[in-house]
Amino acid sequence: MDDISPAARDVFARTWTDDRPWEFLSRLTALGDRMAGTDGDRRAGELVAEAFEDAGVRDVEYDPFEMACWTRGKTTLTVAAPDSRSFEAVALPYAPSADVSGPLVDVGYGTPDEIDETDVDGAIAVASTTTPAGGRFVHRMEKFGYALGAGAVGFLFVNHVPGQLPPTGALRYDEEAPAPAAGVSKETGVWLRDYAERGGEARLTIDAETTPGESRNVEGRVGPDTDRELVVCAHYDAHDIAEGALDNGCGIATVVTAARILAAMDLPLGVRVVGVGAEELGLTGAEHLVDRLDLDSVAAVVNVDGAGRFRDLVAMTHASESTAEVVSRVGDESNHPIRVEEEPHPFSDQWPFVRAGVPSVQLHSDSGERGRGWGHTHADTRDKVDERNIREHAMLTALVVRELASEAAAGTVSRLDDDELAAAFRHADFEVGMKAAGIWPTGWD
Fold it and tell me: Among 106, 160, 208, 247, which is 20 to 30 Å from 390 by CA?
């Protein structure tokens, strides 16, 4: 780190006390609803473009793309027996308008093994938002898809975090789901599981609409104009029931702050900085980005989804030894801990790049608790954020990007091998769940 220029060192120093990350996050979360395809989404993109330009990112522009816009209506959940009562429920994005009834069946965590052990045919499956310790985290889309494949007519997603917080989250990637599903609070889930044990019957009614819509990526550049480049991105959209401060207001604020540092650095490779749209509804902005870029010219991707939320940085390196080595070196040389997790997953904006063989790292942070915590609930609000984490993670992000650019310029960043990547996903026990969710690449069979 000794070769950082005086100008960059000055920007690093000023970052410790910079109030602009907090101001940007405040303006973003004050928008309220910034669900992809809405007016709030459009205004959020404008804030990102303005922040990029202020940070010294050049050639900032919008790149629109088509996406499936989902609009929430009314959701009703009632239990007809053994008691007659109603509960608060929040429809999960891409749930269709539907009215289904059936027995409540408790499938525990909602893992494939648990669903296989129960009879959910014609039933409304009740599954937790968390998963058992000791194994990988099983995503909502996997649980929903597997339950439907076993014959369930509806799905209820029970938050494991107390506080009357029904969770949300998309059921499919950029398309309407084949059956209704809703999130309910932990407290409601206790009742539903009790009723399931007593042969309870429930009715789930959802009013929603999926229509053609548009979102956009916000792009610019820092560093030199080179044939090869790095991509640094973070999504700026959020679910409509929350401010989206943690997910992913912190992430896009981290990228804006890191871009200011990178703009002052002497980089050996150009960096494309992207505020990505429509991540929450299917990684649609990232898919669009992959479709339009020449991936042979993309040396690596740094996806900032989850950084800035909590104290310590986590680097998910997605089966890339090259990015794992870079992140470990930055953590050691900066004397800041960065936990490296090599296991891949397909549930953030690095996935379309990883699937195409581009080495990637997702910068994340967590509270130490399993699951999303306040994310994807009404409680994902600005007061949960410690702005010091954003500033510090931005500095670490800039150092990771700089080091990765140096390695890429030297030709030492290896592409991902398709067979090895498929084997890594199989080793992590993803095949069944990804097939249930409809996202297992056909070329991997």
Answer: 160
